[in-house]
């Protein structure tokens, strides 16, 4: 999968893309990520945003700069299996099913991350980009949603998860996991707070795999 990110803040992605599973997937060339910055198309002494028609607070990102950045991404894409997404809190809700379908159906995803009050609405109208939301809350921009989609879609690409990690996904997963020590002694901060003992559930130490799977299912 090739991800093409349209953003005026590409540096926000730096440390995230270096680490862990996504970092390894980039190194192994299972995914690639390219940035296209609308600022690069901005005329000297002009801003990337402008006042909204009809008034109101905040600024609106200028359409021509975004269209130019998107065009420079799309020009390079040879495949027809391409999807263009624009992040918006009122868009279609992203979920694992969306991630699975994206990994299967597309070779190239163009993700448009807006900021401030939003991108001039004509960008979406011209491109018929699908508006996607990662949840019912308003973020300050589309960069975190882009990272969420990159992470979640990459996990669905064969080879991105190691053998062990994908096995773990297939197995019954539980939010309750434990490691050593078997007995954890913990005194909460503050005066008069007593020491408490937290044990690993007995069943996990039993070696009885059937019982362990049942416990996980129950959890
Ligand atoms: N931009 C701001 N909030 C967002 C959200 N919840 N999902 C996608 N894009 C957004």
Write a compact overview of the structure shown:
The protein has 219 residues and is of the alpha/beta class. Helix content is 33%, strand content 20%.
Strand content: 15-25%
Number of domains: 2
Q: Report strand order across the widest sheet.
A: 2-1-6-5-7
Fourth-tier CATH superfamily name of the largest domain: SPOUT methyltransferase, trefoil knot domain
Bound molecules: adenine
Total count of strands: 9
The arrangement of helices and strands along the chain is EHHEEEHEHEHEHHEEH
CATH topology of the largest domain: Alpha/beta knot
CATH architecture of the largest domain: 3-Layer(aba) Sandwich
Shape: elongated
Task: Write structural notes for this entry.
- The chain has 219 residues and is of the alpha/beta class.
- The chain folds into two domains: 2-166, Alpha/beta knot; 172-218, no CATH class.
- The protein has eight helices and nine strands.
- The protein has helices at residues 14-18, 20-27, 63-75, 96-105, 122-127, 143-154, 163-170, 209-218, and strands at 2-6, 32-36, 49-50, 60-61, 82-93, 108-112, 130-133, 183-186, 196-199.
- The strands form three sheets. A five-stranded parallel sheet has the order 2-1-6-5-7. It has a two-stranded antiparallel sheet with strand order 3-4.
- Strand 5, helix 4 (96-105) and strand 6 form a beta-alpha-beta unit.
- Helix 4 (96-105) crosses helix 6 (143-154).
- The longest helix has 13 residues, at 63-75.
- The radius of gyration is 23 Å and the shape is elongated.
- The model has no long low-confidence stretch (mean pLDDT 94).
- The structure holds adenine.
- Adenine binds next to strand 5.
- Belongs to the RNA methyltransferase TrmD family.
- It comes from Candidatus Nomurabacteria bacterium RIFCSPHIGHO2_02_FULL_37_13.
- Keywords: Cytoplasm, Methyltransferase, S-adenosyl-L-methionine, Transferase, tRNA processing.
- Specifically methylates guanosine-37 in various tRNAs.
